[in-house]
Design a protein that fits this description.
The longest helix has 19 residues. 40% of the residues are buried. Helices cover 44% and strands 12% of the residues. By secondary structure, the chain is of the alpha/beta class. It is globular. Helix 6 links the parallel strand 4 and strand 5. The protein folds into two domains: 30 residues; 202 residues, Alpha-Beta Barrel (TIM Barrel). Bound molecules: zinc ion. The site of zinc ion has 5 residues, from loops.
Length: 267
């Protein structure tokens, strides 16, 4: 009787022959449909890929951090957020949803040029489950409407829910985006004092703070905590910059061999 290992080895050899014998077109089709992987070859790969950064926290020795606001523009929260940033004369980075830019173009235009704009997809679908074609459509439509409405090109990308796949990473890289995640979360489900106390102490060099100026959750606690977070960070010598400015600082530190390799504290 054939032992199980030998039987399995024969089975995989047969499968390999089938794959080699199959048309290349089938493999290309499978790649184009892929939801979970990126790939280095094949017609689904955008041309001219170079390098991208996937950044949770910027590695920099400079005492700078970034406040980011997702899911806007939203009439409930975007104007209040801008007012707070104006009061402290600091910039933020707004990861806009294309769908909301299309319905709130005036709000999008009101985001002053000192703030940075990011691409946060059109529909806020979980793009880690999207095909490469779906992901490309979400990102290009959003980039295009932001450019049409504001005259500015979003230069960074944040995937909805912070979830990403190889295919999404490849599409974002093909659009010359860095993928921006976050190191600290202003959770709108927490009481404002807890948000203020936690983030006010934790924001440090290179931190990327996730907050929202839109979305499905009430955001009042975050807006109430935000001035305290800003003031406490300022007291500790942290200056707030945009995400692109944070990335520039990271690149110059890398070029100078000046990397901060310390690990972030856990939540
Ligand atoms: Zn979002």
């Amino acid at each position: 009787m054939m032992d199980r290992r030998r039987f399995l080895a024969m089975g995989s050899a047969a499968a390999a022959v089938t794959a080699v014998g199959g048309a290349i077109g089938i493999e290309e089709y499978r790649l184009a449909q892929s939801r979970h992987s990126g790939w280095a070859v094949g017609k689904g790969r955008p041309a001219g890929l170079g390098a991208m950064n996937i950044v949770w926290r910027a590695q920099t020795t400079q005492m700078i951090a970034a406040l980011t606001f997702d899911d806007g523009p939203d009439p409930r929260y975007t104007p209040k957020t801008l007012d707070i940033l104006d009061k402290y004369n600091i910039p933020g980075t707004f990861f806009l949803q294309g769908k909301h830019v299309s319905t709130q173009p005036e709000l999008a235009k009101n985001i002053d040029a000192r703030h940075a704009l990011g691409n946060h997809s059109w529909s806020h679908a979980d793009l880690s489950n999207a095909t490469a074609d779906q992901a490309r459509d979400e990102l290009t439509r959003t980039r295009d409407i932001i450019q049409d409405v504001t005259g500015r090109v979003p230069v960074v990308f944040r995937p909805p829910y912070g979830r990403f796949s190889g295919a999404l990473t490849m599409i974002a890289a093909g659009m010359n985006y860095d993928m921006i995640l976050w190191s600290d979360n202003a959770d709108p489900r927490e009481p404002w004092r807890d948000i203020a106390n936690k983030l006010g102490r934790r924001v440090r060099a290179g931190s990327i703070v996730l907050a929202h100026d839109g979305g499905t959750l009430p955001n009042d606690s975050v807006l109430k905590a935000l001035p305290i977070v800003i003031e406490q960070a300022h007291d500790r010598g942290i200056e707030f910059v945009t995400v692109p400015q944070l990335l520039s600082a990271m690149r110059s530190d890398q070029a100078g061999g000046n990397l901060d390799t310390t690990q972030p504290e856990e939540a």
